[in-house]
Write a structure and sequence with these properties.
Length: 248
């Protein structure tokens, strides 16, 4: 019985790359295994927490995206470049960006999985093979794609902008407080620059990845013209993306 449970749990936690698995299907299959073997509620929570991390998330997302890319590869000859780019954005890029803020500060072995997905998607749009040159230039100049690490940083900064302009939930907005509004810090130079206050963290691998720290610290690292309160959301996104592209 224990061996069969381990095999069933392994099939849920480590899906085959060919299977179009996503988080909803992932949790449905996990619940089905729990009910089949009568796992107690306390043990269910401990097993779920063990695998509820960015590594598992990136593995599931990359498996589902590669499944979609294989389907698009089969019909690539029948579609023009604009149609393929639209399909790739809908079925692949949107999945990579979903909950992308959780990837900020993530290890390279986690983000590299999703970066390989974007590279494969760009090859399908450009209709090139794996070892042909010019893929990076095509991603920058034609698709206007950021790398996975910069996409996560972009999403976090946009979320902070929403918090400061009362366009986000209150539980997130409480983490984005200007230093000028905090007693004892209103006379600091950081308050004059419009910087946000953020807590101290002990573990950079965990505490530094929380929104309470990563959001304000990312916002403080932006140049002054991007932290201008008169910018609209669309203008902020445009200038922020241009700013990130300047590092390539």
């Amino acid at each position: 019985m224990l061996k069969r449970f381990a095999e069933a749990l392994k099939g849920v936690m480590h899906p085959q790359p060919a299977e179009p698995c996503g988080l909803p299907l992932y949790f449905d299959n996990l619940e089905r295994v729990y009910k089949q073997f009568g796992v107690p509620t306390v043990l269910q929570a401990s097993l779920l927490i063990t695998y509820l991390n960015t590594r598992t998330q990136s593995m599931i997302v990359s498996a589902k995206c590669f499944f979609q890319l294989r389907q698009l590869r089969r019909i690539r000859r029948s579609l023009d470049d604009d149609s393929v780019a639209t399909l790739v954005h809908v079925f692949v890029a949107s999945r990579v960006d979903y909950c992308g803020s959780l990837l900020i500060g993530a290890p390279r072995k986690t983000t590299n999985k999703l970066q390989r997905v974007l590279n494969s998607a760009a090859r399908i749009v450009s209709n090139t093979r794996k070892f042909e040159r010019g893929l990076t230039h095509f991603q920058r100049s034609q698709l206007h794609w950021l790398d996975v690490v910069d996409r996560a940083w972009f999403i976090v900064c946009v979320q902070v902008f929403r918090c400061l302009h009362k366009m986000a939930p209150e539980y997130l907005s409480t983490y984005c407080q200007p230093g000028s509004g905090i007693s004892g810090r209103c006379h600091l130079r950081s308050a004059d620059r419009g910087h946000l206050d953020f807590p101290r963290v002990k573990l950079a691998s965990y505490g530094g990845r929380s929104f309470a720290y990563a959001g304000p610290s990312s916002w403080n690292s932006l140049p002054a013209y991007l932290r201008d309160s008169s910018l609209s959301l669309s203008s902020f996104k445009h200038h922020l993306k241009t700013f990130l592209f300047s590092f390539y």
